Target: Orotidine 5'-phosphate decarboxylase
Amino acid sequence: MRESRPVIALDFPSFEEAKEFLALFPAEEKLYVKVGMEIYYAVGPEVVRYLKSLGHSVFLDLKLHDIPNTVKSTMKILSNLGVDMTNVQAAGGVEMMQAAREGLGDKGILIAVTQLTSTSEEQMQECQNIQTSLQESVIHYAQKTAEAGLDGVVCSAQEAKLIKQATHEDFICLTPGIRPRGTEAGDQKRVVTPGQAYQIGSDYIVVGRPITQAADPVAAYHAIKEEWTQDWV
Ligand code: C5P
Model:
């Protein structure tokens, strides 16, 4: 199920800066925002409660990875916060992912990180001692994620098609690394435009700096949303 709103990465070091950014949007504009470790650890659960009180949807990106019992109880707590989507590391294993699902119940979309996009094939082989290609590892983890009953994965848009073929058509592919036509890639290596992400099969796009650092963030958000949804039938 595709989400028409780009998910805005709320990567700010303080609550005040995040609030200032959100205040740029009219109150009736309900956003989908990604709360990452930075702001969550700086502010705490209050940041999620605040966003929900404004009527926004929240993807809490904490990438949990611990023993199944701990992940399950943590997910139970997150389910009470009212997050719309959250995630774990697939490397925690099928049992851990099933425990996460049990903890969260049906109170939100649950996805997994396969291999971080900052991990190169050489690093993976050397450090994790996984002797396959990076792509094979990503597909393998996506299949384990589906087997555990989770809803999808965080992945590069370029991998979305293969992942859906290896799992099922409804398996969610949430993709960062999005850059609108004619903007800076920054530190992202493999970027796609919102339109390309749609063509390739992303279900959710995560966009940070092209919106948060834009001269006019509201206009940038709408332009990206338009580019993402213009060919939808
Ligand atoms: O500013 P930018 O659009 O690059 O932000 C992308 C967001 O998605 C950041 O919060 C980043 O941490 C996150 N992310 C990513 N690549 C991944 C997973 C998460 O860029 N593989």
The longest helix spans residues 68-81. The pocket of cytidine-5'-monophosphate is lined by residues 9, 11, 36, 116-117, 154, 176-177, 188, 206-210 (CB under 6 Å). The CA atoms of residues 211 and 221 lie 6 Å apart.
